[in-house]
Recover the amino acids of this structure.
């Protein structure tokens, strides 16, 4: 029943307000409903074969919907270079790389945002937000032209 809940939630979003909808991985109905009407899709993946498989499926859906996108690579340093190579060859910007780091994992397991504990990360996420906003605005301008 996730899709009707997401649909009702989206009705509560104030026009012009910044809203972030987090959806499960994959391409099922909740993902499609979350993406519908979005200005930008931030796809988070891991640099593994499984992560690359899911990323490819997600990219196909997002591009079919005409939504600009970017990628965050989580647990960077595990796996291989497949995700990086795929993004380069498909003109997908990698907007952030979060390292595979024990401290980050420990904070996460305790429900503590690591940006509150590890220097420099708050600024990196602010930069990420600015880049997403810029990409979204460029998309809106090109649609209006």
């Amino acid at each position: 029943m996730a899709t009707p809940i997401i649909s009702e939630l989206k009705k509560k979003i104030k026009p012009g307000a910044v809203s972030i909808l987090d959806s499960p991985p994959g391409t099922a109905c909740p993902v499609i409903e979350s993406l519908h009407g979005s200005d930008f899709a931030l796809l988070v993946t891991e640099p593994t074969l499984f992560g690359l498989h899911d990323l490819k499926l997600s990219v196909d859906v997002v591009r079919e919907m005409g939504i600009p996108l970017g990628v965050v690579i989580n647990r960077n340093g595990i796996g291989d270079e497949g995700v990086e190579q795929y993004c380069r060859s498909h003109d997908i910007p990698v907007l952030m790389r979060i390292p595979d780091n024990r401290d980050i994992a420990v904070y996460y397991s305790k429900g503590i945002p690591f940006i509150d504990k590890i220097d420099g990360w708050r600024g990196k996420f602010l930069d990420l937000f600015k880049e997403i906003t810029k990409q979204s605005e460029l998309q809106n301008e090109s649609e209006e032209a």
Observations:
- Helices lie at 2-11, 29-35, 49-64, 82-89, 102-109, 121-144.
- The mean pLDDT is 94.
- The chain has six helices and three strands.
- The beta strands are 41-45, 69-76, 94-99.
